[in-house]
Amino acid sequence: MLAEIITIGDEILIGQIVDTNSAWLARELNQTGIRVKQISSVSDDREHILTALAEAAGRADIIIITGGLGPTKDDITKKTIAEYFGVKLIENKEALENVTRIFARYNRPLLEVNRLQAQVPENCEVILNKNGTAPGMWFNVNGKIYISMPGVPHEMMYMTEETVIPKLKSSLKLPFIFHKTILTAGEGESFLAERIADIEDSLPPDVKLAYLPKLGQVRLRLSGYGEDEAAIKEKVNEFADKIIARVANVVAAEEDIPIEKAILNMMTDKGLTLSVAESCTGGYISHLITQHAGSSKVFFGGAVTYSCELKKSILGVKNDTLQQFGAVSRETVSEMVEGALLNFKSDYAIAVTGIAGPDGGTPEKPVGTVWIAVASNQKMVVKKLTFGNKRQQNIERSAISALTMLNTLLRETAK
Predict the structure, then answer these.
(1) Does this model's pTM top 0.85?
(2) At how many degrees (to 10) do helices 330-344 and 308-315 cross?
């Protein structure tokens, strides 16, 4: 069963907002056993919407549309869908009661433009919106299912979870889909592919392997499709075990989680603690860690020592070290990580110093030069990395590289 997602709105096409709806919907549909064939974004233009609907119907069995259902003149999705099906708009009693109830709750007058929210194409089944005024719409026409929902994420998500997914499951015979993700860190996609080539070649037709690289990490996702849930799970797990055994030295997690969460889980299980000394990353490593619930069990905190003065006063970096080698050097980052261990009294520490850019570089230390140190009381690892001249990218790469180094150190020393 194939689906296509169409998002409608000029704000997406000009980059004013990021289309998070499609990514979320694709995950939900995939877990239900529905494969997404294509994702498209179109403008608030009648001809564009009509063309997108017609083309999607030629590719997919289920067409999901989000956006363009608001009360203003630029929201034309509902009217255009009615034109596409050759039907008129009618007022829906349940939708009107919902809109009236919402405005009464906030003690606001119901304007005519708001009342029009209750109008829907006459051939649709209304999906009530418990979080907003625009109803969703379900159409079953010529063997195709069309679903139109608001673009407001929390409204769309609630409709999908409460109504759309259950209705799809009850209406269709769907296969079982099972995914198993292995997170690896510190080895490139091509090297991983070479190491597990024979395993990949032996995969049966109903199990697929995908490589998902991102900033020093590669997620290996095994996907199984079939009618027998137990058999598919067993088959996928069998091949996952083979891959994990083969590349064990770079495996960070055996589930689909980010590397910092994998580190937190490992350190929590072993009762270990962590602190940081950040310079060029400006607190980004701390942000990655503390966005996860339960991080306080592991993460003590640390310092953003952007200036040389703070490197000296908070971390104990020697003035002679800074004078002789500079703030961006092996010697300085080594003293930074030692200072974090000593002053913050954690079991492990990360330190980063570098030139994020786009200026500030020299011929000897160009923009993108970064020194990273990770350490415990027993061992320290220091690396110099050279990235490009994109500031945000340098910050993100430095953070992920530091976490990857910590992951490796933990697997070597945290027994």
Answers:
(1) no
(2) 40
